[in-house]
Design brief:
The chain is an alpha+beta fold and about 300 residues long. The chain has five helices and 17 strands. Helix 1 runs antiparallel to helix 5.
């Protein structure tokens, strides 16, 4: 059976191990866990709240839709991953581009686009969706549904079919526009916010969010313009940004976290880092006091037992 001094020694070692780990963490400057994924840019695009560059950045409602991958800001939906080409924070809009979406310079077969109704994004009314290379039996041409704009839409179709890129979907330049449909419905046929081209019997689609020089389709702006919900700001986030921090979240409850430039996370703003660091110093003093007390007790007990 171990002596009293041996027992105290074992207890001391058992207590020192976790205390040493905590002390080492403090010496490394990590008083609060660090999130190294949060940045204020992704490539050349500024990233501001409610968006973030990785998990724990921005608002949790957006984390499944927006991420930064290899310097490219990406938008994810059920139909794929798209590149975000621009963000206008004043109007709360983003423009995404589908690499398989047709433009005047390049047309190709594509799969379509969808947007979850529960997402914090909506499709802006400025978007003009155009279905290209559609079968004459396509449901979009059902006269009872009235899904194609046959007024100004005809000019859009003629403009697109004048592009050399139509060869990519098996059409000749200036082909008859009977296989083109300027889609009047953003909700698709029996689905949510979706364009499912196999179901619509169309080869490709494009989206025009700005015409510019309307007579020249090479100058049209192709992409999908989305409006996002900008009602997520809180006073805590405003204080965080005012202190040059980035708003994010942490923990299982996804509670608010202010991510500061030195990597320290706080619950309010980076101006409060001093309190966090003071806590770290105080904890380190307490740890050293406990360690010292245990060592003295062990030495006294060892001396008396001799």
């Amino acid at each position: 059976m171990p002596s009293a001094s041996e027992t105290l020694l074992l207890i001391t070692i058992f207590l020192l191990l976790p205390l040493h780990a905590v002390s080492s963490t403090i010496h490394a400057g990590h008083a609060i866990p660090i999130n190294g994924l949060c940045r204020d840019t992704c490539g050349t695009i500024p990233v501001k709240f409610p968006f973030g560059t990785g998990f724990g950045c921005g608002h949790p409602d957006f984390v499944r839709y927006i991420k930064c991958s290899s310097g490219t800001l990406q938008f994810s939906t059920g139909t794929g991953i798209y590149t975000i080409s621009s963000i206008d924070y004043n109007s709360s809009t983003i423009v995404v581009t589908d690499p398989l979406m047709s433009t005047c310079s390049s047309m190709q077969n594509s799969g379509g686009f969808s947007l979850d109704r529960a997402s914090p994004f909506t499709i802006r009314e400025e978007n003009i969706f155009v279905l290209l290379g559609c079968s004459t039996t396509s449901p979009v041409f059902d006269p009872n549904e009235d899904l194609c704009d046959t007024g100004s839409g005809s000019r859009v179709c003629r403009g697109l079919y004048s592009c050399k890129g139509v060869a990519g979907i098996g059409l000749q330049q200036n082909a008859p526009i009977s296989t083109c449909c300027v889609y009047d419905s953003q909700v698709g046929v029996g689905s949510g916010y979706a364009l499912v081209l196999p179901k619509l019997q169309c080869s490709s689609y494009t989206s025009i969010y700005e015409f510019g020089d309307e007579g020249d389709p090479m100058k049209w702006k192709f992409g999908i313009s989305l409006q996002y919900n900008d009602s997520y700001y809180t006073n805590a986030c405003k204080d965080c940004e005012a202190s040059e921090g980035l708003c994010g979240f942490s923990g299982l409850d996804q509670s608010f976290a202010c991510i500061c430039q030195n990597g320290v996370n706080t619950t309010r703003s980076c101006f409060e880092q001093g309190y966090a660091l003071s806590w770290a110093v105080e904890l380190e003093v307490q740890i050293k006091t406990i360690i010292g007390g245990l060592l003295v007790s062990w030495m006294l007990l060892l001396t008396r037992s001799r």
